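ingest -> fold -> write
write: protein_1
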Amino acid sequence: MENILVAGANGTTGKKIVNLLNESQYFNPIAMVRKEAQVAYFKAKNIETVIADLEQDVSVAFNNTIDKVVFAAGSGGKKVVEVDQEGAKRLIDASNKNKVKKFVMLSSMGADHPEQAEQLQAYLKAKHNADEYLKSSGLNYSIVRPGSLTNGELTNKIELETKLNKSGEISRNDVAQTLVSTLNDDIANKTTFEILQGDTLIADALNTLSPINA
């Protein structure tokens, strides 16, 4: 089984990702949390944790072998440069140093052109900078850009394009499932794509992606 480090594991979407990985026969989740108090939730499920702060040195998160990384952390708009941008860069650098096989970035629709956004421009700029840093890092990556997140049920269906040219919503459950599916070796390598709720099974939608797409 591959060890998957999940940054932002204590977040709403992060917990869903970790739980999906924990149910998988292929992946072993390692929940990266910022505080000791956040460990108990995962310990109760026998899920391995590591305490590391994205605003500081994150090398401790790689003390054990890490095969792949999911970046699902977010500052909630409070520290977009420190966490969403620079924190992502720190984790990308550490992933490179430790020869991680794939880095899956939870980004956001609108991060390709943050200057065009009417809202959340600072957040989208930070996500844009993190995405571009990942693309130029030399790592294998997938950058996933969902629309507005909801707390809806898992449908296991999405609409996916490299650029959808429209706005919309998608449930955190479907985003989490997409991110976990993207961890597979032959899916969405060096690819950036957008997702919304839709009618195509996640696996089928991901299979439409070409191997390399900027």
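write: protein_2
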Amino acid sequence: ANGNTDSLHLLIDSGERADITDVMDIHGQTPLMLAIMNGHVDCVHLLLEKGSTADAADKRGRTALHRGAVTGCEDCLAALLDHDAFVLCRDFKGRTPIHFASACGHLEILRTLLQAALSTDPLDSVVDYSGYSPMHWASYSGHEDCLELLLEHNPFAYLEGNPFTPLHCAVINNQDGTAEMLVEALGAKIVNSRDAKGRTPLHAAAFADNVHGLQLLLRHQAEVDVTDKLGRTPLMMASENGHTAAV
């Protein structure tokens, strides 16, 4: 955790347990995970050379690779992949390191992970257990560069998994940039898409009082009087939430 390579070397070499490098704390974290979280590349290399399991998972199913995707340390990630870390590993919610890199906006890490995933299992649709893809995460978080890469990689990924689309995610969190990118890339197919409750992105924008989102969607032929499964229009949603500007 503190990047003390000399002490780490000494402790590993004098340890009597064969699995000394994979010892876990109360949360199921290994020394490798702690080294990754703090960006200590030398410790990461040493632990891997001494036999640390690259794919060990903590109590939430998260591996060192999940942590590397969050912290954004490219050297740490490269070391893990060099030791055959499994890029499509899933945590307790089915989320892969690709989801985390997308959510955190780490473009180069995302690029590396996508390339590794393509060579590992090109048919894996990379959706979590709730049906959310990395595209949903990038859209919700407003990471336009990551979304652009994901759209190049697989523009129809939004069709897989949760019908609450990346566009719903973008407009409900007031992310104008990613919303515009999605509309431009996917057009009419996504503008009037419906989630499991029959709600369109226009409903989501009205709920969030996202006036820019409403303007964008209406410019691209969003159906203004569309009703969800409870019979509610976007105007009703805006009204019941007191969103005067949206109304």
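write: annotation protein_2
The chain has a mean pLDDT of 95.
The CA atoms of residues 158 and 165 lie 6 Å apart.
pipeline exit 0
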